[in-house]
Amino acid sequence: MKKGLLLLMLLYCSLLASAQIGANAGYSYIRAESDVYGTWLIELSSVVGVNYWFRLKNKRVEFFPTLELNSTKISNDQFVMRDMTLVSGYLNTRFYVFDFQGDCNCPTFSKHGGSFDKGFFLSIAPGVEYSNTNIQTKDDSFRFKAKEVMPSISVGTGFDIGISNLLTLTPYTQFRYAASNDTRLERWIVGINIGLRFD
What we know:
Blueprint: H1 2-17, E1 20-34, E2 38-55, E3 61-75, E4 79-95, H2 115-119, E5 120-137, E6 143-159, E7 161-162, E8 167-179, E9 183-197
Antiparallel strand pairs: 1-2, 1-9, 2-3, 3-4, 4-5, 5-6, 6-8, 7-8, 8-9
């Protein structure tokens, strides 16, 4: 048991020593449509997440496996929605279209060229959403609970700002779509990612 834990710790440290990890936070605007409870517009719910970074060796295509949490509450004249929680896992893939060949396997801060050319990217992110929704009327005459797993896809854009070889700030925006048999979710997300690179 102790040897297994030691091996896991060594593996973790070796990955950490040659990788970039990050955390993101932002806000989302959600349009939720259901065959059961109709359409909802949810403004400015909070989003937080963590990610890991790796890239292609010879092209400026970078991958960010991401785990994210989006939680919100909403009410209107008829319904009260409580604890709509979305847990997302997705592979965010960034294409640096103005620096596709890249000049080094190094942080944005150390790359040659103009800030816009080396920092701007387009992204696509296939993934999966876990949705936990609880809705009830104010007079308690109707209750609805659902837990669903839905495939999702998102597209977006952003801009890396290299603060140092260790630190990169990335403002970004995404449109994410997820659907199941009964539910469709559309989300506009605006946020910032803080990336730390240890190699």
